[in-house]
Automatic annotation (TrEMBL):
Record keyword 4Fe-4S present: no
Keyword Lyase (UniProt): no
Fe2OG dioxygenase domain location: 228-314
Organism the protein comes from: Papaver nudicaule
Protein name: Fe2OG dioxygenase domain-containing protein
Lineage, top ranks: Eukaryota, Viridiplantae, Streptophyta, Embryophyta, Tracheophyta
Record family assignment: Belongs to the iron/ascorbate-dependent oxidoreductase family.
Length: 314
């Protein structure tokens, strides 16, 4: 099928198995540098074959119970940690962090210190970036992972069974040296810089609480350089005409010490817990904190492997 992109460029992608050459079509798609947003804007009724998950994968997932938001006892038990009155309640909060890290590997965080306006502005800034003219975004589209600012569709596009329905802007703010602000996109530069200042403080607080929950000095993990690197990442999930056939983010774990997730308007984050996918609905103003692979590799928490995924929506 012919896909007409916003800039008038046309690319050819198949939507069935006839004459399907996956690697060729992945390259055609990636070379266009228009991302999933470019495909979505063409208003196709079907998604290109490169995004369709294998039939056996779809069949296997149907056997897993996806717990419904709100109505589930399991949902009600997902950990929520409130930092209100941290110093007065520090031992209580440290115990809650340890329980959440060892049982779920993630928790929602309230009264974390990032103003709602900063979170809202960050979301608007990323949206503004992803929804601007494709020709402007192309200057950031790359698979050179040494670059501090990079836009692409799926970092592993050419090695997975199916592409995911999302575009990602990744900004390495501390690597470990601070980024030159002029490298950031005009559309969201101020918002990223403001959000970064706040999230560094949240990260430092979390590292202290995690250290204390292990019976260590509160600076232990920071002294191990666990907070030395920071990336601010903005995923964009356009509406999908066939959400049952693809995912925004497939089953994965995060290659980080911790991930601080500020949830946008797209619901659907799912955590794999007790052999089922549990749909998580964030509380208003909450951050979602995920224990990443690097803390698990240190084997300092007795927690299970932590997997997440994000479905797509029409």
């Amino acid at each position: 099928m012919e896909v007409a992109l916003e800039n008038g460029e046309k690319i050819f992608l198949t939507y069935d198995d006839s004459s399907y050459d996956r690697m060729k079509e992945l390259k055609v798609f990636d070379d266009a540098k228009a991302g999933v947003k470019g495909i979505a804007d063409s208003r196709l009724s079907k998604i290109p074959r490169i995004f369709v998950r294998p039939a056996e994968e779809l069949a296997a997932e149907e056997k897993l119970l996806v717990v419904n938001n709100g109505s589930s006892e399991l949902h009600e038990s997902t950990p929520v940690i409130d930092l209100q009155g941290l110093e007065d309640r520090r031992k209580e909060i440290v115990d809650e962090v340890r329980y959440a890290a060892e049982t779920w590997g993630f928790f929602q965080l309230l009264n974390h210190g990032i103003p709602q306006t900063v979170m809202d502005d960050m979301e608007k800034g990323f949206t503004r970036f992803h929804e601007q003219d494709t020709e402007i975004k192309k200057q950031f589209y790359t698979r050179d992972f040494s670059k501090r600012v990079k836009l692409n569709t799926n970092f592993d596009l050419f090695v997975t069974n199916a592409a995911r329905w999302k575009d990602t802007l990744n900004c390495s703010m501390l690597a470990p040296d601070p980024i030159n602000p002029q490298e950031l996109p005009d559309a969201c530069r101020d918002e990223i810089l403001d959000y970064t200042k706040h999230v560094i403080k949240v990260g430092d607080t979390l590292m202290e609480l995690l250290s204390e929950s292990l019976g260590l000095n509160r600076d232990h993990l920071k002294n191990m350089d666990c907070a030395k690197f920071l990336s601010v990442i903005g995923h964009y999930y356009p509406p999908c005409p066939q959400p049952e056939l693809t995912l925004g983010a497939s089953k994965h774990s995060d290659p980080t010490f911790i991930t601080v997730l500020s949830k946008g308007e797209v619901d659907g984050l799912q955590i794999f817990y007790q052999d089922r996918w549990v749909a998580i609905r964030p509380l208003p103003g909450a951050l979602i904190i995920n224990i990443g692979d690097l803390l698990q590799v240190l084997d300092i928490f007795n927690c299970h492997d932590i997997y997440l995924q994000v479905p797509t929506y029409n």
